[in-house]
Write a structure and sequence with these properties.
By secondary structure, the protein is mainly α. The chain has a single domain (3-186), classed as Hypothetical protein af1432, CATH 1.10.3210. The protein is 60% helix and 3% strand. The protein has ten helices and two strands. α6 packs parallel to α10 (176-186). The longest helix is centred in the middle third of the chain and has 23 residues, at 110-132. The protein is globular and about 55 Å long.
């Protein structure tokens, strides 16, 4: 009966050892792990929700944050039909978490929308931190912008800070609250 819990945890704990590849692509050498991102996103979600008095089902938010990166457990596993499955078509999530994962992927609930925005904002904070630490350079950021959609490149113009492109890119996902937070991060 406990096999699904044990199997899931033994796979999920590997997220400690999986680097967030986007940072490597922009020349950052000391890269956070996927598990670091999950932890940072959880902390940020708690802070924003309680500071701003948001009326969300926070248990659902925590669960979504914890399972949303599940597709990264290992490269052999993929996302099929919104739910994460292994090569044999068997869910790698305990059955109790499949519906919360699917709800996040659909992005229709207020909690799923919040989780997407808070995850993006955590990445924005990380971009700014890497910039301030000298890990994310303006030169590497400009190289990364070459991969952005043309309409966004036109909006950005010539960036003057490494994190500027990253912050502006993510604002397409934000509501007013998260745009304001992103603008404050930019000023750090």
């Amino acid at each position: 009966m406990n096999k699904s819990i044990i199997d899931f945890y033994l796979k999920a704990i590997n997220l400690k050892n999986i680097d967030r590849t986007g940072w490597k692509e922009v020349g950052v050498s000391n890269v956070e792990s996927v598990m670091d991102h999950i932890g940072g996103t959880l902390l940020l979600a708690i802070t924003i929700a309680y500071e701003k008095g948001l009326k969300l089902d926070m248990q659902k938010v925590y669960e979504m944050i914890a399972v949303k990166e599940i597709r990264k457990i290992n490269k052999e596993e993929s996302v099929i039909g919104g739910t994460s499955y292994n090569d044999e078509g068997k869910s790698i999530l305990p059955s109790s978490l499949v519906s919360i994962y699917d709800e996040y992927i659909k992005g229709e609930s207020e909690e799923a929308k919040f989780v997407l925005m808070v995850s993006k904002l955590e990445s924005d904070f990380q971009a700014k931190k890497y910039e301030l630490d000298g890990e994310f350079t303006l030169e590497n950021a400009k190289e990364d912008i070459k991969n952005y959609p043309e309409e966004l490149k036109a909006k950005l113009g010539d960036i003057t800070k490494a994190s500027e492109g990253w912050l502006n890119y993510d604002r397409q996902y934000y509501d007013e609250l998260f745009t304001s937070l992103s603008e404050d991060i930019e000023e750090l």
